[in-house]
Amino acid sequence: MVTRWSCSIKLLPVISVTSYALLYGVPVCQYIPADAIDAHVVNAFFEALSSVELDAYTQAVKREQQTTDTVERAHSQQLERLRYQLARQGAAV
Q1: What is the DSSP letter of 28?
Q2: What is the sign, positive or negative, of the torsion defined by CA atoms of 69, 71, 77, 82?
Q3: How far is Cα 42 from Cα 65, in angstroms, rounded to an integer?
Q4: Is 39 helix (H, G, I), strand (E, B) or coil?
Q5: What is the distance, to the nearest Å, from the Cα of residue 80 to the centroid of all Cα atoms in its chain?
Q6: Paired residues of 14 in beta bridges
Q7: SS3 assignment for 41-58
């Protein structure tokens, strides 16, 4: 099927199915108003985009949580080292 965009009918965009016209020289078999198709395509696009955005947001939150976990682990290790040093100093006195 070959389609083309045309503004020839009442200056509204239409999709005209021209496969038979091109192959057999007969009149164009269908004119479909583009508004309904455009609305469907736009909705499908934003549905797909929203899932991509959700995936990106989920990944960003996961990376942020990993960073937070890493910092908390480093702080815990630093506290453990300081406690150990204090314990060694207390035993030496």
Answers
A1: P
A2: negative
A3: 34
A4: helix
A5: 43
A6: 6, 33
A7: HHHHHHHHHHHHHHHHHH
